[in-house]
């Protein structure tokens, strides 16, 4: 699915004046890194949408796919029949859902018609079972009864607090919910707040947390986030002004279900540290909260597993 998305993005900026594309990218970067919420669509016209798609879709796709993969590992016998992507814009999360499960129908809801139009254009022929609908992302939002999966990615930070709560409340009506935000302290706080709201609505947290209790992280001292490797195409490097063939997208997420699903026994919450004959793992656990464990060669199979383990993996 990554290659199909890359191909769909390939000629996106053809015909768009470079100066206009650059200005749109700069404005979007400022908005993405800013802290001021809005009551209006961030993507205003075709130039904005094209710049956004080239600048952000590859990274958003990889972050959402990583979160959905971690969630899917907790529910291996389950797959959604219906999927609603709230604030989905050009559809990066819908592409990620299609890369994770097959046979479902997706609906992308967004308040920016230019984003929906371009998303439909990019998905033509690849994501045929997708509807693109304009909707106000905030108070009054609802998802169809019986929806299996709702995704909300990189949206909550654009909203005022009351609108954020309304979106999470709407999402909580689904059988499964996956929320993704930037892997910044602010993004983590929005995920933490939404996590509490999902628990209060009766949902069970299944990833990344190994429990549905209070998050053990002390606010202001640390934040929970993960990383996804993003391969940069020539278009991606051009728009982002970078030279490396890859980048690492940091993200925070939470996945919850209305049905019985087991959380991981523990989750690796930092990049494993390899030492001579040992691996240091920082874990979030159900019983002990945050703790570090050292796995040595004498642990045999566990040591080999620890050497192969990655940041974000479940740990038994």
From TrEMBL:
Keyword Transit peptide tagged: yes
GO BP: any one term: methylation
Annotated GO MF terms: iron-sulfur cluster binding; metal ion binding; methyltransferase activity; structural constituent of ribosome
SUPFAM superfamilies: S-adenosyl-L-methionine-dependent methyltransferases
One cellular-component annotation, GO: small ribosomal subunit
Xref: InterPro entries: Mt_RNA_Methyltransferase, Ribosomal_Rsm22-like, SAM-dependent_MTases_sf
Keyword list, A-Z: Iron, Iron-sulfur, Metal-binding, Methyltransferase, Transferase, Transit peptide
Gene3D superfamilies the UniProt entry points to: Vaccinia Virus protein VP39
Top-level taxon in the UniProt lineage: Bacteria
PANTHER family, alphabetized: 37S RIBOSOMAL PROTEIN S22, METHYLTRANSFERASE-LIKE PROTEIN 17, MITOCHONDRIAL
Record-given protein name: rRNA methyltransferase
